[in-house]
Amino acid sequence: ICLFGFISGRWTCFNIDTRHAKIIKGSKEAQFGYTVQQHEADGQKWLLVGAPFESSGEHQTGDVYRCPLDGKPATNCTRLHLGIISPWILYNRCPLMFDDHIILHMHLHTHLLVSASSSLCFDPEIQYSFRRCVIANGLQFVSNLPSTVCTCRCLCIYNRTQAFKHGGRPDAKKVMIVITDGESHDSPNLRKVVEESEKDNITLYGIAVLGYYNRRGINPEAFLREIKFIATDPEEHFFSVTDESALKDIVDALGEKIFSLEGTNQNGTAFGLQMSQAGFSSHIVEDGILVGAVGAYDWNGAVLKETHHGKVIPPKSSYMKEFPEELKNHGAYLGYMVSSVVSAQHGQLYVAGAPRFNHTGKVVIFTLTNSGNLTILYSLYGQQIGSYYGSELAPIDLDDDGLTDLFLVGAPMYFYKGWEKGRVHIYTITLQGSLIPDGTLGPSEKTHDSRFGAAMYTLPDLNGDGFSELVVGAPLEDNHKGAIYLFYGQQNSIQPKYKQRIAAGDISPGLRYFGRSVHGMMDVNGDELIDLSVGALGAAVLLWSRSVVRVGISIHFEPSKINVFNKDCVRGSREVSCMLATVCLNITPQTPITDPKTVALRYSFGFEESRYFPRAVLDSTEEPQPRDVTLRPDSDYCQQVYFHVHEVTDYTRPLIFSVTVGLQNADEGPVLDDGWPTSLQSELPFWNGCDNDDQCIPNLVLQSTSDLLDRRQFCGRRERSSWPPCVHQRTSGERLVEASRRKVLVEARLENRGENAYGTILHITHSPNLQFSSLVLKAPSDIAIECPNSDDMSLYRTCNISAPFMRSFAQVYFRLEFEFSRSVFLNYVQITLRVSSEGEEMSPEDNINDIYHNLKYEADILFTRDSSPSRFEIKPELGQSLPVGTRPPFNLSYQIQNLGMFPVSELLFTLNVFAVTRNANALLRLSDLDIDQTAGSHCNAPRVITAGSSSQEDLSLNPHMNASTSDTLLAQCIINLFPQGDVSITATGWLNLHSLLAVKLKRLDLVMTAVVELSPSSPMFLHEERPMRHIILEIRKEEDYRIPIWVIVGSTLGGLQLLALLVLLPS
């Protein structure tokens, strides 16, 4: 069945017709259809069908049927009666799906049949009787068996009475092997069956498989007793194995014991050519017929050649190197299949397969002279035990030049993924004649047991590409219904994927073992096409080839590009651009076309637009699609398709117009070439509005500036003129950032001074201490700028400008806004703006602006001190009761706050305590400087002045201790402040009473000066040069004064006189 889909535009079948196949039926019992071959003689075409079990009187001699191929519906085949010409029964070769199988008895859930050992070599006719017994009658027999062990029934009803009926002499020795894994359920008849077998001269072997008993711990004594009873000689003919996998271990021993049944009187006696089975396979060569003799030399096999001058028989020594004596009992079956290849250097070389060599199979390539000199040039080896590698051979001349290009070797019993699928090995033949592996072919992955490769045949070119094709049979597929596979030839190889699988069910539901043989070399029905013949059980099937054509598709647009600037028609009250597409179809035969020489096509067309509002719409939407047309090879068919294009913003992507073709009837007439496209997509671009149709040449010019203030602008305000940055003028290009600033604005202007700029994009990159906030147009404009949302933390973003293009001489003003980051602080800022377009820029150097500034930030610092300093009263009696250096203590507190959003680093805090007199009297001691802030801040220990003995000193005339009258005690801190952070600094110490009592004073002010400052290299600056805060520690002292008597008397008299004077004066 050929399936066509307008979406895929591809056919999914090859050109073999499965609906009109012709089936020629014959006797299933005679194995009619075992081989098929097309033949022509005296102008008459025939199909020769082999029936190897056809009877001639009482003998199954086999025969060949000749079936006329005259085109009549009914075909009457004539038997050629070849069986009465010679007393020997000859046939082509064993049917591979039954080869080397003997009847065995096991549980039905295990296996009914297993492969015989390589040492169990039977006469092909005897083997064939077994095969026929299994296939012709076995299925019916097995289907009626109960799900129990029935040893007697198998021996009596079936094997003993049927298996030895065909072929062989009445007095010939016979052997029967029983393999079972359980006791029989029909044992009452066992003694009778064994006795009757002995009367029929049948030697019985018994093999007991103990796996079932061992796994379940069951005593096998009764089971072993029964199997020993079945064996003719329990000592010689009885075997037991521990499990099923151990069966292979008894193969060689069993072969040695029954070897004498093969035609010799004692073990070790070798056959020569007495049972050679010459003619098992044959192949016509240049000077005669190459013949395989699988039974020669103890079933190792041999090849012979029949010429006009007689038989050519190579000596046995010719094979000894490739088939050594130690493997003689393996039964290599050399000659199971014979063929030949033609190389440029050696000419014709002969090929023979030995599918049982060393259990894996072998193929030899050799020369054979008419004098009998056989020289083996190359050998190919199978890869898997039991795969029957070499049972089928197929040389392929791909290009029909007379030289063999490929050589195929079948391994139909190849085991893969748990199933006996089969495999075909491909070899490339070099000019020197050597064979190089070149891959494998296999069946469908969905199949199970297939026996793929049981039959192969090289077909002439079927699809018109000039390369030969290959057909492979898989007769056990689909539960033994069978199937065939067709593979395309290609340059120097075979396509690894099959092009058509034809199952028996596609032809007729009653077919069995379809694909057991294949052949195809001539036009059978007179249509000038090669037809295929396939053998099945009791039938021969004729399959007809179909013509192969290619459909040519062309699309032409008028005009060739969409001009959206020119609206030349109206559709639905809207101005649009109208256009015309001309679609033309024609056919080109790849193989001859039968009468009538026309092809019925079905086609459809349209735009591939997935958007809700398509950019282009067909004018005529009432006409149905797909449409039908019938073409001849010598004519073209064209149709005009009118459509219109709307005003759109997407000018960059062209419109896609597609045409898809198929067949009106996939079951009749020619087929479309599998390798030729059945659809065509044509792009319809938009006109760019530029002088050069392929590319525009724009000239984009970008200008931008930021609003960050330079030093001159910052210091222009009067209140800032005394600030440190303004006092210490520098020539650097620094920008000063006010403490209140939170954003950076960039004013930009973009102008296109050239042709249209398609796909114009603004690229924005900035330093990590900025975050993009927005882009705003400064004035109404027909140019739009869209910045898609992206990660807020990204340092890069793009904005589309006036999609799809920016017109020539257009300009736009816009503003970019950035916010300072609260997590990243840098001493610079960088903003890079770049514009690009799809065109070739006229002057790319003005497409980029890089704004880079070193920054100085205004530090918004609040520096405060303790507003309530302490006062101390010094009494003389304190010095007599307190130890030296203690009491009373004092505390000094300072607070620094960062009110800004930027961090302040390495702020230096310096505390100067003026408390050491000129005579080195230390009036107080500074013990500690403590800071409560977190990591990054630290204080140095206060400088300690070693106090000497206190000395007398008069400080009453100098009550202030400051920088000019005293030495200082120094302490410093390095402070780091986070945004909106603060820190408290506390200085602690005590008054030195012994020094204070030693000096003369009434009141003394000790000045404590604290200063904060930033390094000149710091990215921050302060409003003041060095903000300073003072704390005055006031000290008062009580003195012990004794006034003399004369002073008291004199003062009293003087006071009385003054009083008298004041009283008398007014009067």
Automatic annotation (TrEMBL):
Membrane-protein topology:
Single-pass type I membrane protein
The UniProt record lists the keyword Calcium = yes
Q: Which UniProt keywords apply?
A: Calcium, Cell adhesion, Disulfide bond, Glycoprotein, Integrin, Membrane, Metal-binding, Receptor, Repeat, Signal, Transmembrane, Transmembrane helix
What name does the UniProt record give this protein?
Integrin alpha-11-like
- Record the organism: Sinocyclocheilus anshuiensis
GO process annotations (BP)? cell adhesion mediated by integrin; cell-cell adhesion; cell-matrix adhesion; integrin-mediated signaling pathway
Its annotated compartments are: Membrane
FG-GAP repeat coordinates: 18-76, 264-315, 373-436, 438-496, 500-560
